[in-house]
């Protein structure tokens, strides 16, 4: 098996890694440049589908690999449309059915989806928490959908966890909890992704209002459509896993490297 990255995952490469090159015509159409030696083999393809163009690129690339008699193990560190209704993701995955794609893997998908191997990154986060000496902090699930993810992490670190409840109205996010928060202890909000930061900001403010002295955030996918905003100013620390390229910012956001997890993914 040979591993290839695309430009969407080039931030994960090391010297000597192979990147499948492409160019675009003035109208945006892709022209793929596959090395001659990519024939009659199994390819572990590491690609992100953040944009719609990334999906089009993927369909074209899988077809070109099939023409070369190559089967594909598809690893998508970030898989878009994971937080929408499942029917949307099913539609986007349909062109890959019946192709030479052997399996599709991703990390910390927002919700389980048929045909996708969803690999947790809890062990990487647990190791980081222990290295930073944050085991006394409570782990916080920002909504019901995050509880299972945070429970998995709590099993690895031995930390106490609580779950928050989220209700959303147009332009407004309200956070509450049925559990009394322990006083005098820091909190770590653990989520699968951060985009605009609106939900996160509401969770942080709620915890601080309840007497939590400091709040850390750990999220797998730093989508950050509008960058890291003022919502991060009250945080003790902000940590992402680099499934997506780090966002240039003057803030002190940390980015944990998932590189070693990619090799493990190819074994599933």
Fold and architecture overview:
It contains six helices and 16 strands. It has 268 residues and is α/β, with parallel strands linked by helices. It has two domains: 2-119, Rossmann fold (3-Layer(aba) Sandwich); 122-257, 3-Layer(aba) Sandwich (Rossmann fold), CATH 3.40.50.2020. Helix 4 links the parallel strand 9 and strand 10 (161-163). Helix 3 crosses helix 4 (147-157). The longest helix has 16 residues, at 52-67. The radius of gyration is 20 Å and the shape is elongated. The model has no long low-confidence stretch (mean pLDDT 93).
Overall shape: elongated
Distance between the termini: 13 Å
Major sheet: arrangement of strands? 2-1-5-6-7-8
Number of helical elements: 6
Supply the CATH architecture of the largest domain.
Answer: 3-Layer(aba) Sandwich
Structural class: alpha/beta
Percent helix range: 10-25%
CATH topology call of the largest domain: Rossmann fold
Total domain units: 2
Instruction: List low-confidence stretches.
Output: none
| Mean pLDDT rating | 93
User: Could you give a short account of the major beta sheet?
Assistant: 6 strands, parallel
Strand proportion, as a percent range, falls in 25-35%
Rg, please? 20 Å
Could you state the order of secondary-structure elements as H and E? Answer: EEEEEHEHEEHEHEEEEHEEEH
């Amino acid at each position: 098996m040979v591993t290839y990255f695309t430009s969407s995952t080039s931030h994960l490469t090391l010297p000597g890694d192979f990147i499948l090159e492409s160019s675009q015509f003035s109208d945006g159409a892709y022209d793929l440049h596959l090395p001659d030696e990519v024939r009659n083999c199994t390819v572990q393809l590491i690609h992100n589908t953040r944009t719609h163009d990334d999906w089009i690129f993927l369909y074209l690339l899988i077809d070109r690999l099939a023409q070369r008699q190559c089967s594909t193990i598809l690893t998508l560190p970030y898989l878009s449309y994971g937080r929408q209704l499942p029917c949307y993701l099913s539609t986007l995955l349909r062109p890959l059915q019946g192709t030479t794609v052997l399996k599709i893997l991703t990390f910390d998908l927002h919700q389980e989806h048929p045909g996708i191997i969803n690999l947790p990154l809890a062990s990487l986060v647990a190791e980081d928490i222990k290295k930073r000496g944050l085991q006394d902090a409570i782990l916080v699930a920002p909504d019901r959908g995050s509880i299972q993810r945070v429970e998995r992490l709590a099993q690895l670190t031995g930390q106490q966890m609580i779950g928050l409840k989220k209700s959303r109205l147009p332009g407004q996010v309200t956070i509450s909890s049925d559990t009394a928060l322990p006083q005098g202890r820091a909190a770590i909000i653990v989520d699968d992704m951060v985009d605009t930061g609106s939900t996160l900001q509401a969770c942080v403010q709620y915890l601080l209002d309840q007497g939590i002295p400091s709040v850390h955030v750990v999220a797998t996918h730093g989508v950050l459509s509008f960058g890291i905003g003022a919502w991060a100013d009250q945080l003790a620390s902000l940590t992402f896993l680099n499934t997506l390229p780090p966002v240039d910012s003057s803030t002190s956001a940390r980015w944990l490297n998932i590189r070693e997890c990619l090799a493990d993914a190819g074994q599933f």
